[in-house]
UniProtKB/TrEMBL annotation:
This is Diguanylate phosphodiesterase. Residues 154-403 form the EAL domain. It comes from the Bacteria. It comes from Pantoea alhagi. One of its GO terms (molecular function) is cyclic-guanylate-specific phosphodiesterase activity.
Length: 404
């Protein structure tokens, strides 16, 4: 199967440019051996390379490229399949953009094509090439330092508290995980992560529970979250709880139940954020919308969790106008290496900025993910890089500090 892969990277500062010719000669020989062809562009700082060939060979060569210490900040822009090669006449050819004007380099690349009919200006891979040559996306090249540029120091004096002892009668266990602003060293809110003590998860469709029981358990579990918040004495700290949107309509008086439990545990609606997950199909949208209006009218804020990984997508932004959007961890994972993920995150940031919606990155586990997302404009983060969930307690936060 003929595979196409395009990536962009940044030349390491102390690598002399004169090494490029020798590097290309070796790459050309190596690529021909594996039946891989393509084009390499260099603008004095960044590389742009298009590789074509058998999928296994392309991926093997790209893995070796990723290990090459002469460049960093590799971002995979495209991985696709094609019926014919665009560049079949050479193993690899280098175009130094400093020696060409924009139009002549594009024509020169076309002239190297296997077929002018196959390689047209409407070709998607060629559009990536044109964008690089014209430097139209250069403002979105976020050059992040290596992972060891930062250390993460646990602050045991922050919000960390002793565990609140659970009682035998409790049905749900609750762990707390903070949502933080790393640069200001501030905790934005705490999320209560709830699990059943005995039964299968109330959110698990594959369990033996009926849908009605799932929704009742989902709603009842918030009682445990509010009770733990009271035990821990979170005072005016914001508390986030996850809720299946259909629980608001399938359980009678669901909104009143939440409000009464908030009051019973010494909390106020203004410090509660209800996170509705995008992973569930919402079948009675008008009723859900009415319930959400009641929550917001009482002072409760609304967040969309798992944004980008569910069924409803952007329509939830239109219908519910949330206060927060939490980008799903599957999009966040290795975002610093993925062009498609970066484009999606940037689109979410731009859209939410226009609507004055706070964007939160969830599931952050690597320093490189956090650095890229921070450079892109996100300020609020949640993930094991900063604090793992703590059962019946509030974990200490590991704040980033530059290593001298």
């Amino acid at each position: 199967m003929l595979s196409t892969l395009i990536y962009r990277s940044h030349l390491v500062d102390d690598v002399p440019v004169k090494e490029l010719e020798q590097m290309v000669i070796k790459a050309n020989s190596h690529n021909e051996l594996y039946g891989v062809t393509g084009i390499l562009l260099f603008n004095g700082t960044h590389f742009f390379q298009l590789l074509e060939g058998p999928e296994e060979a392309v991926l093997s060569i790209y893995a070796a490229i990723c290990r090459d210490p002469r460049h960093h900040n590799l971002v995979e822009l495209l991985r696709d399949y094609a019926p014919a090669r665009r560049f079949g006449n050479t193993g690899m050819e280098l175009f130094d953009l400093r020696k060409y004007d924009k139009e002549s380099v594009l024509q020169a690349v076309l002239d190297r094509g296997t077929s002018k009919y196959q390689l047209t200006y409407s070709d998607r891979a060629l559009q990536f090439l044109r964008t690089f040559v014209e430097a139209r996306e250069k403002e979105n090249y976020f050059e992040i330092p290596p992972a060891d540029y930062w250390d993460f120091i646990s602050d045991d004096t922050s919000l960390s508290q002793p565990e609140a002892l659970a009682t035998e009668a409790e049905t749900f266990s609750v762990s707390m995980q903070p949502i933080i602003d790393p640069f200001s060293c501030q905790t934005d809110s705490l999320e209560a992560l709830i699990q059943p003590v005995c039964e299968g998860s109330p959110l698990d469709d594959s369990s033996a529970l009926s849908r009605d029981k799932i929704y009742r358990n989902d709603l009842q579990s918030k009682k445990a979250a509010f009770a733990l918040a009271k035990k821990l004495g979170i005072k005016a700290q914001t508390l986030s709880v996850n809720l299946l949107p259909m629980s608001l309509v399938m359980v009678p008086n669901a909104v009143n139940f939440l409000l009464s439990e908030i009051e019973a545990n010494g909390l106020v609606p203004e410090q509660i954020v209800v996170e509705i997950t995008e992973n569930e199909v919402i079948s009675r949208i008008e009723e859900v919308e009415t319930a959400i209006k009641q929550l917001k009218a009482a002072g409760i804020s609304l967040a969309i969790d798992n944004f980008g990984a569910g069924y409803a997508g952007l329509s939830l932004l239109v219908q519910f106008q949330p206060d927060r959007v939490k980008i799903d961890h599957t999009i966040i994972r290795d975002v610093h290496k993925s062009g498609p993920k970066q484009a999606i995150v940037q689109a979410i940031i731009k859209c939410c900025s226009s609507l004055e919606i706070c964007v939160i990155a969830t599931g952050v586990e690597k320093p490189e993910e956090w650095m890229w997302l921070e450079a892109a404009g996100i300020c609020n983060f949640q993930g094991d890089l900063f604090a793992r969930p703590k059962l019946n307690g509030i974990p200490a936060v590991a704040w980033p500090e530059k290593i001298n």
